[in-house]
Queue: 2 jobs
Job 1
Amino acid sequence: MSYTPPKPLVLDYQNRPAEMSEDRKFVTALARGLDVLRAFQTWIGPMSNKQLSEVTGIPKPTISRLTFTLKKLGYLTQTGRNGKYELGAGILSLGYPLLSNLRVRHIAHEHMAELARLSGATVALATRDHLNMVFVDECCGNTSTTLRIDVGARIEIASSAIGRAYLAGIRPDQRAEILAELAGIHGERWPELHDRILSAIRQVEERGFCIVDGEWRRNTRTVAAPLVSQDGNTVMAMSCGGPIFSITLERMEQELGPRLTHICTADSLYLGN
């Protein structure tokens, strides 16, 4: 089976609301530095100052100062062959406290591992990162699967099952804001993509889960469900997926979807502090 790489993420740097940058409390230099770090993706690999400037929309002279500073602080390293930059080990020190203190991640892991074992699929837990979802845990039930997800990897919210499940779990006003941002980014693709998102939201409302079949990756089928705290203020999502040849749509609908929904609505997974 040929491998289809994941679609590029939505990098929404140039769509930051003007009122945010105009706020006197908003530190633009800090925001730009974080934008540089967020620009790195596994499908791109090391990046030059020119590439970082093109991706983020930040002028190249500013990028040069930012990469120099981030390298000195240990958040970037520079490859000896071509001088391009990649993330440094210092980044791990920023993300680890979040993962270690994420209570639901520890509680859900056992349930995720059991579902992965029973299904032979990949089960993942994610939260939102701007217009993408970032994975915070993963359990793989089949070591030979082509669907492997690394903790910290991101996926586009609009075209993925886990992203659409998240959209179904948040409040309508929050959803409307995100959809408005997505509409401005996706342009002519948006009407069709919007219809698919609304269909997924209806699926979640009717049966607790939604399915994305061969859309995010051509040969991959995924089911996902929202994971919502009792007060509704914290929302995550969980997915279960694998290659189309190994998991039938019927099994997704009749077995894996209901199992996933049961896990996500269990009292033991309450997203509290």
Job 2
Amino acid sequence: MRKFIIKRLIISAVLLVVVAFLVYVLMRSLPTSYLESVARQKAMQPNSKTYEEWMEQLAATYGMDKGIIPGFISWCGNAVRGNFGDSWKWTVPVIEKFKSCVGLSFIMGAISFVLELIIAIPLGVIAATKQYSKADYTITIIALAGISLPTFFFASLLKLLFCVKLQWFDLGGLIGRYYDQLSPMGQFMDRAHHLVLPITVLVVISVGSLMRYTRTNMLEVLNSDYIRTARAKGLSEKRVIYHHAFRNTLIPLVTIIGGSLPGLFSGALITETLFSIPGIGYVSYQSMVSGDIPFSMFYLVFLAVLTLLGNLISDILYAVVDPRVRIAD
């Protein structure tokens, strides 16, 4: 197991360097950037330098005057030390801005993830044990609806119904207009109230796929020979399903769940943007629109790290939960 983990870590490190280089090249090849906007604004001021002079000065300041390879090596050296530069849009260090917004995205992702497990797994088991029944058809329709609904459409629908028509929630933002006048508990409840619709969107659009996955794996296990043997021995249906079948269904589920854990830190770009929730997804979107190369570069590489970490966690969990898996040293 140790050699397997070390090998995977080395492969992941190589892949991360390749992905980081590709992202760096793409960022450097953008047709416009925040630097150009700032240079134009400064060049239009009275008695100012020319646009070309401002671009040369700003590029030197932010290290954009180097070639692709030297620039990437310099970026990697700073990144290893935890220095990703200053954000051009937010005018603070990239890491500082990241720390200020990733916690909110993690809270939203963790709550929606727990709700997804609580809803999807039991419904998937029910649909499998009552195959072709009304319950199965109903759960399948709900799952397919959740999978098929585009995030922006469902979020806009909720905003129209609950924010415009019923006026139960604000259209966007994390706090209300009277937030500063509330007690600490009132401020907490105000923030929680503003997160209801975004979390609902995250749960609905993600619960369907896990529900279908649980149903499919449960049906496969229920049709296995050892399940028929357990029933032939006279075991109760409840014990057959929840003691034998469900435990083996958890093996592939654990790998899927483990692989999705790093995604809790990546944020929900579309949902956070539509509801103006200042999480990492919303901040990253604003940075990309503004041509903020330092923050955009950091965020894309951060997503690559989460993806590689998720794959590694899935492989390790599969070896842990399935005793039949043996990894050769």
